[in-house]
Automatic annotation (TrEMBL):
Residues 1-22 form the signal peptide. The keyword Cell membrane does not apply. This is DnaJ protein ERDJ3A. It comes from Prunus avium. Keywords: Chaperone, Signal. SUPFAM superfamilies: Chaperone J-domain, Thioredoxin-like. Residues 176-198 are annotated as: Disordered. The keyword Signal applies.
Length: 574
C-alpha cells in the first residue's frame, strides 16, 4: 500500500511538472522563428527541424520528444486560428496554457500530407484526410505521436513514416505514391484509361545542349542520385504530370552521379532529396531553369508547370484588335478565338514553337453571332484566323475539336506550317516586285480600310476582281499608275496623299460593292471604283482595262472632269 502511495505521489508530481513545463513552451522558440514570421518561413523551419530530429534519423536521447514538440509547435503556427489564439491567450484553444503533445479530439492522431521541400502540412482530422489530394493530388497518411508504436488506424506503421515522406518504397505504386490511391495502380491511369504511357528520358550534357537549350519546348527535369530516398516517387509524380500535359512538355532525369559536371554547371545537384526544375520560357524567349519547391503531389506540380508554359501570345480585345495594324509587320499574324478566359495551354505551347515565324494573338469571345466574330468570317468556335503581311485574311480553321493535347499540337503545328509556306510565297512575290521597282498594291480588308479608304483619304481607287487572272491584270495597271501619280501626291496642298490604290476580292467581299451598285457589279469580272470617303460619292469605270484607259479615268477623277454619284450606303467590309 505504501509503495502504491509513493508511486501515485511520484506520478502526480511528474505530471504537474510536465504540465508546468508545457505551459512555458513557446512554439516560436521551438521552431526558431520570429513572431511575425510568414507561413513560408514557418514551413521551412519545421521541415529543417523535423528532418534533424526524426526518430528514424536521430537516435540521441530526447530526439523523439523533441520531434513531438516540433510537430505540436508547427500544428499551432501553421493554423491561423490556433496561432491567433496563442498570440492572444498563450494557448491555441483560446485559453491560457500551451499543451505539449496534446492529440486534440482525434484519437491521438495527427494527419500529414505528403509534401515537397518546405511544404509538409498537418491537418486535424479524418474528414480532412478524406478531402485532401483529390484527382491528381497526393493522398495523405496518418500516424500517432502519443499512441502505440504499432500501425496506425490506416495500416501505416511508424517505421515507414520517413520513407513514405519521400515517396514510399522503391518501385512501388501503392496507395501513398500520390496518384489514384488504389494499390497497384500506375500514375495517370484509371480503369479504362487510354492515355499512352510516358517515359522519362535520361539527360546527358550532350542531350541537354542539343535537345533542351532554346529549342522552344518546355521540359520538366528531375535531378537525383540513386542513393537518395524518394527519387522514384518523385519520378512517378512527374510521369503523371507529363501524362496530363502530354505534348505541352517533355520530361527528363539527370543522374548527378553519372553527370556531375552537368549538375555542377547548372547548379542543380540534389542535397538531401531529389530536385525538380522546369526549363521555362515564361519571361523570355531564351529558356531558363526554375526550381519547383511545392508539395510532392501531381496537382500543384502540374499547376507550376502550366504557369511556366510560354506566354508569347498577346491577349487582345477583339473590338480593339480590329482597328490595329496587324498588316504592318513582316511576319504573318494569327489570332485564336475561344471562350477561354485565359490563353489556352495549347496556344501557349504553339506560340513558343512558332514564335519566330508568326505574331500570336488570342481573344476571348462568347458567340459566333458576335458582330466582331462574324466580320472575320468565322462560323464556329474555337477558330484560328490568319493574315499575310499584305493584309490578306484567311480563316485557317473553325470549330476546332481535339482528342488530346499532343495530337492537337501536332495538327495545329502542321496547319501553321502550311500557312507559313503561303506567307513565304507571298513575300517572295513581293520581293520580286520590289526588285523590279514595282510597288505592291494592298488588298483591302477590314483592318486596313481606315488607312486606305478612310475619311482622311481624299480619293480611293479600288480595283475589284473576281479571279486571280483579273487580279494580276488590275494590280499591274494600278502599280504602273501609282508610280506616275507620285508627283501629284507630293504636290497636294495639305501634304497628304491625294489618292490611294487598293485591290478588292469581289468574290469574297461582294456585299461591299452593294454600297455603289444595287447588283454589286455582279455582271463584271472586274471594275474600277473611285471613292471619295469624305463626301460619300463615287464614280465607276467599267470599260476596257488597259493602262491608257484607266489612266484617263483616274486623270479625269483628279481633274474634276467626271461626274460622281452618291453612294447607296456607307461601304463596310464584313
Amino acid at each position: 500500500m505504501g509503495n502504491r502511495l509513493v508511486l501515485w505521489i511520484f506520478l502526480s508530481a511528474l505530471l504537474f511538472f510536465l504540465t508546468m513545463e508545457a505551459t512555458t513552451i513557446d512554439p516560436y522558440k521551438v521552431l526558431g522563428v520570429e513572431r511575425n514570421a510568414s507561413q513560408r518561413e514557418i514551413q521551412k523551419a519545421f521541415h529543417k527541424l523535423s528532418l534533424q530530429y526524426h526518430p528514424d534519423k536521430n537516435k540521441n536521447t530526447g530526439a523523439q520528444a523533441k520531434f513531438s514538440e516540433i510537430n505540436n509547435a508547427y500544428e499551432i503556427l501553421s493554423d491561423e486560428e490556433k496561432r491567433k489564439n496563442y498570440d492572444t491567450y498563450g494557448d491555441e484553444k483560446g485559453s491560457p496554457g500551451f499543451g505539449a503533445g496534446s492529440p486534440g479530439d482525434h484519437g491521438g492522431y495527427t494527419y500529414f500530407t505528403n509534401g515537397g521541400p518546405g511544404k509538409n502540412q498537418y491537418t486535424n482530422g479524418p474528414s480532412e484526410w478524406q478531402s485532401m489530394g483529390g484527382q491528381g493530388g497526393s493522398k495523405s497518411f496518418s500516424f500517432s505521436f502519443g499512441g502505440p508504436s504499432g500501425p496506425s488506424s490506416f495500416g501505416f506503421g511508424m517505421d515507414d513514416i520517413f520513407s513514405n515522406l519521400f515517396g514510399g518504397k522503391p518501385g512501388g505504386w501503392g496507395q501513398f505514391s500520390g496518384f489514384s490511391g488504389s494499390t497497384g495502380s500506375r500514375p495517370g491511369s484509371q480503369p479504362g484509361s487510354r492515355s499512352s504511357p510516358v517515359s522519362i528520358s535520361a539527360i546527358s550534357s550532350q542531350v541537354y545542349k542539343k535537345e533542351i537549350v532554346d529549342q522552344g519546348m518546355t521540359w520538366l527535369l528531375l535531378s537525383y542520385t540513386p542513393s537518395l530516398k524518394g527519387h522514384q516517387h518523385v519520378e512517378s509524380i512527374i510521369k503523371e504530370v507529363a501524362s496530363s500535359l502530354q505534348g505541352a512538355l517533355k520530361i527528363g532525369s539527370i543522374n548527378c552521379e553519372t553527370e556531375p559536371s552537368l549538375c555542377k554547371d547548372l547548379d542543380i545537384y540534389p542535397r538531401r532529396m531529389p530536385r525538380v526544375f522546369v526549363y521555362s520560357y515564361k519571361v523570355s524567349e531564351r529558356g531558363s531553369l526554375v526550381e519547383y519547391d511545392g508539395d510532392w503531389a501531381a496537382k500543384p506540380l502540374k499547376m507550376f508547370c502550366q504557369d511556366h508554359l510560354p506566354r508569347f501570345s498577346k491577349r487582345v480585345d477583339l473590338k480593339h484588335f480590329e482597328s490595329s495594324t496587324v498588316t504592318v509587320h513582316k511576319l504573318p499574324s494569327v489570332v485564336l478565338l475561344s471562350t477561354k478566359k485565359d490563353t489556352p495551354v495549347i496556344w501557349r505551347v504553339l506560340s513558343r514553337l512558332h514564335h519566330n515565324h508568326f505574331l500570336f494573338y488570342d481573344a476571348e469571345v462568347h458567340e459566333v453571332s458576335d458582330p466582331t466574330v462574324k466580320k472575320l468570317g468565322v462560323d464556329a468556335l474555337p477558330a484560328i484566323v490568319g493574315w499575310l503581311s499584305n493584309g490578306e485574311k484567311h480563316v485557317l480553321k473553325a470549330g476546332i475539336t481535339i482528342k488530346d493535347m499532343k495530337s492537337a499540337i501536332n495538327e495545329l503545328s502542321a496547319l501553321l506550317e502550311g500557312f507559313e509556306k503561303k506567307s513565304k510565297k507571298a513575300a517572295s512575290s513581293q520581293a520580286k516586285k520590289s526588285a523590279t521597282g514595282e510597288k505592291q498594291i494592298p488588298l483591302l480588308t477590314e483592318f486596313n480600310f481606315d488607312a486606305l479608304c478612310g475619311e482622311k483619304t481624299p480619293v480611293c481607287i479600288i480595283g475589284a476582281f473576281r479571279s486571280s487572272k483579273e487580279r494580276k491584270k488590275l494590280e499591274s495597271i494600278l502599280n504602273t499608275l501609282s508610280q506616275k501619280s507620285l508627283s501629284r501626291q507630293q504636290n497636294s496642298a495639305d501634304g497628304r496623299d491625294s489618292i490611294s490604290y487598293t485591290l478588292l476580292d469581289a468574290s469574297k467581299k461582294a456585299s461591299f460593292l452593294n454600297a455603289f451598285d444595287k447588283a454589286g457589279f455582279k455582271s463584271l469580272d472586274k471594275v474600277l471604283v473611285a471613292y471619295k470617303p469624305r463626301r460619300g460619292t463615287f464614280a465607276a469605270f467599267e470599260g476596257e482595262m488597259t493602262t491608257e484607259e484607266v489612266e484617263g479615268f483616274i486623270g479625269s477623277v483628279l481633274n474634276g472632269d467626271i461626274r460622281f454619284s452618291k453612294t447607296r450606303q456607307k461601304p463596310v467590309l464584313k
